[in-house]
Amino acid sequence: MFDLGYFLSSIPLLLKFLYLTVTIAILSMAIGLVIGLVLETLIRRNVAVLAGAARAYISFFRATPLLVQLFILYYGMPQVIPAMNGMNAYTATVVGISLNCGAYLAEIIRGAIRAVDVGQWEAARSVGMTLWQTMRRVVLPQALYVAVPGFGNTFVTVLKETSLGFALGLTETMGQAKLMAADTFKFLESFSAAALLYWGAAMIFGYMQILIERKMSKPYAKEM
Asked: Looking at residue 49, which CATH number applies to its domain?
């Protein structure tokens, strides 16, 4: 039988760990965004070795399971890099998810930049703008508008992927649910409560994404 009372009482207990889950997601997304920008820049500059390395990076991290990547980072890499022996589960989770989502964000950024009409690149360069000025003043503001939906979807994915941290021994929302289930044998109730919190968080951030998209679309709506 499903113990509704235990399910309801589990929610506030797990809610205390949701802050850690969201923090990991935000940090991973921020670091992943930097990685994505670097990868996209290397590919766009088309320097043979660096562009090839960036493409190989994206291919590897998109084609292999995140859990395998986390295990390689946390359990495997210390074998060849002894300095990584002191890395804790929190750091490994943030770094692992960042490396993974950076590959996905690179593709989103690349697609968004390509969506900007080539004529605007040429117009900016014709008035003497440098490549950096062209990117900052002309291309990136428009590319950001195109990229927001992809960024939002990736963040929700990252939010869910933080649950894999429990496999490294990290006690976040999923990790705490596992501990509670093991102590009480209320597996369905504990994991259902965790699922409800992940769902709620995803809905909140999804709504925030919609608000951001609406706000960013106003200047474009005025031009039409």
From this structure: 1.10.3720.10
CA angle 189, 193, 197 (to 5 degrees): 170
Q: What is the pLDDT averaged over residues 183-212?
A: 95
Q: Which of 52, 67, 89 is nearest to 175 (CA)?
A: 89
Domain that holds residue 208: 4-219
Q: Which residues contact 105 (CB under 8 A, 6 or more apart)?
A: 32, 33, 35, 36, 37, 150, 151, 154
Q: Give every CB contact of residue 76 below 8 A, 6+ residues apart in sequence.
A: none
205: which residues sit within 8 A by CB, 6+ positions away? 152, 155, 156, 159
Query: Could you give the dihedral angle defined by the CA atoms of residues 17, 20, 22 and 23, in that order, rounded to the nearest 10 degrees?
Result: 160
Split into its structural domains, the chain has a count of 1
Q: What is the mean pLDDT of residues 87-102?
A: 97
* pTM of the predicted protein model: 0.90
